[in-house]
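In the current project phase, we have settled on a layout for protein records. One protein thus recorded is set out beneath this paragraph:
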Amino acid sequence: VRLADVVVAWNVFRHFYPYWKDVHIDWDARLQPLLERALNTTATRTAHLDEMRLLVAELNDGHGYVNDPLLSRVPAVLPLQFRVLTEGLVVSASRDSTMPVGSLVTMINGTPAATRIREGMRLASGTTQWKRTRAEREIQLCPADAAVNFTIEPPTGPARNATVPCTRSQTRAVEVRPDSITELEPGIWYVDLTRVLAAQLRPMLERLGKARGVVFDVRGYPTDAGAAVLPPLIVPAASNVTSVPYG
């Protein structure tokens, strides 16, 4: 079964994947190593799932993922958000008083946070940045009605342990951000392309074009404004404009 799954997946990508010229992978040469790895993997369903995730990860396609319906159970989500900053896992949003924002997470259930990040990135497909995001999100997931033990270095005070319950009734933690489109200081604008809509952005484009600087926040999936903002930023070759405010 493990070998068959590899053959089927490899074959579909071999004939229908549209981006071979972009990823520069000799997919024909990858078949035998993929089969050998599947054959030598521990014969458990979870291990096989990870092997299939590794197969898709080789394509570096952020839309690629693997799901096993027999293993999939709707997980709960911790009342926390994490960001990998300077290779450390940091709490970026929190609804739990024991885990203040800005805390550096060093251990998760006895496993170094760095190990969890590396493993999550290894099994994810996409760019390095997307792999990191996928790893951050996986750490948020946990079995319902369980508890996760953390070792943290809070913004103030010594390192300590914290236990966070995981229930489906939790309200998700959300990072604190400015309004979706706002002037942070004279001439400096902030635009969150994951929240502002094109209809809200278009009336502001002329003003943004005259700004000293614009910070576009794309920490998430952009709305229709993500495409609407591009044409005004494209400078024709014949234009006398030498720069476009863009941050």
Summary: The radius of gyration is 22 Å.
